[in-house]
Specification:
Elements lengths: L9 H10 L10 E5 L5 H14 L3 E7 L9 H10 L3 E6 L7 E8 L2 E14 L16 E5 L2 H4 L1 H14 L14 E8 L2 E12 L7 E6 L3 E10 L3 H7 L14 E3 L5 E3 L23 H4 L15
Parallel strand pairs: 1-2, 1-3, 6-7
Antiparallel strand pairs: 3-4, 4-5, 5-10, 7-8, 8-9, 8-10, 11-12
Length: 303
């Protein structure tokens, strides 16, 4: 049996509470790990991705003798230590030059991994332009049929959304949307481009939008994959029932977002309705079945 350890200090108790499962999980953090041999392109690529992901990122500077596709115990150890569910592992060999391994973990165990090669890389430093604010939430744009038809590219798209989505928000103002990431899948490659969103005057209430490329710019070539089984992937994507919105009965919304409600009531007997007594509401002789009394005409004095 595993021994259950209890925290001895208040700080230790807070640490365990942060690691405990929650209905609404914390934003996912990413680990950037260097392999035994890395090239300058791999190091600069990981550094630029780390700058885009800050502050939800951890960069390990030391080299690590590990091969995630053969033995992932060290990756799982780093995940447990830093409480991170995503990792980017960089290495460089003659067989696989400028190599990146993108992976996710579920319950501190490997869920899936995708190996890609980096080509046509341009760093953030080469673009002498104003950059976006650190920690800003980017707008993710995916184009290409491969993201919908190929299973490997579909999982890669899902990983990229997890990597750059940041904190989950319900509303965002237009002025806060200052960063856009474009992913284009074509001819076996995924082209990544980063743009700064500029809002300029247009003479109308809606501003004119322009995109200014700020880097990094790189192409990813698909190599090896290690995808989770459908059952394990379904379990990892399971949503607790408590977080699902409850359906309201007899409540609907129209196309404009206006809320409409329907109330069910029993049929009311208006004959027993208590109202203010007035001559207009008195029953006539016809309705009661009696004879209506007629008034005698007044005689003129000349008659």
């Amino acid at each position: 049996m595993d021994r259950v350890t209890k925290p001895k200090t208040h700080r230790g108790k807070q640490f365990l509470e942060e690691r405990a499962p929650k209905l609404v999980e914390n934003p996912k953090k990413v680990m950037f790990i260097r392999g035994n041999k890395t090239s300058e392109i791999v190091v600069r690529t990981m550094t630029d991705l780390y700058m885009l992901k800050k502050p939800l990122a951890i960069m390990y500077r030391r080299k690590n003798m590990t091969r995630p596709f053969e033995d992932a115990t060290s990756i799982e150890f780093f995940s447990l230590k830093s409480d991170s569910s995503l990792f980017v592992f960089g290495c460089h060999t003659k067989k696989r030059p400028h190599n990146l391994i993108l992976g996710r973990l579920f319950d501190y165990h490997i869920l899936d991994m995708i190996e890609v090669g980096v080509v046509n890389f341009k760093s953030l430093i080469t673009y002498k332009k104003e950059k976006c604010v650190a920690g800003s939430k980017p707008c993710l744009i995916f184009t290409g049929d491969l993201f919908e038809t190929d299973e490997n590219y579909r999982r890669l798209k899902n990983f990229l959304i997890d990597l750059f989505r940041g904190e989950v928000v319900t509303e965002i103002r237009m002025a806060g949307l200052d960063h856009a990431l474009l992913f284009t899948a074509v001819e076996g490659k995924v082209h990544l481009r980063s743009y700064r969103v500029l809002l300029k005057k247009s003479g109308h209430s809606t501003p004119r939008v322009e995109l200014d490329e700020i880097g990094p710019s790189l192409d990813l070539v698909m190599r090896r994959t290690h995808l989770a089984s459908s059952d394990l992937y379904k379990e990892a994507c399971k949503v607790p029932k408590a977080t699902k919105p409850h359906k309201e009965k007899n409540v609907s919304r129209d196309v404009f977002g206006t809320k409409h409600g329907r109330i069910h009531m029993q049929r009311q007997d208006f004959s027993k309705l208590q109202v203010r007594k007035s001559k207009a509401l008195k029953r006539s002789a016809k309705s009661t079945g009696g004879h209506q009394r007629t008034k005698k005409p007044k005689l003129d004095s000349t008659d």
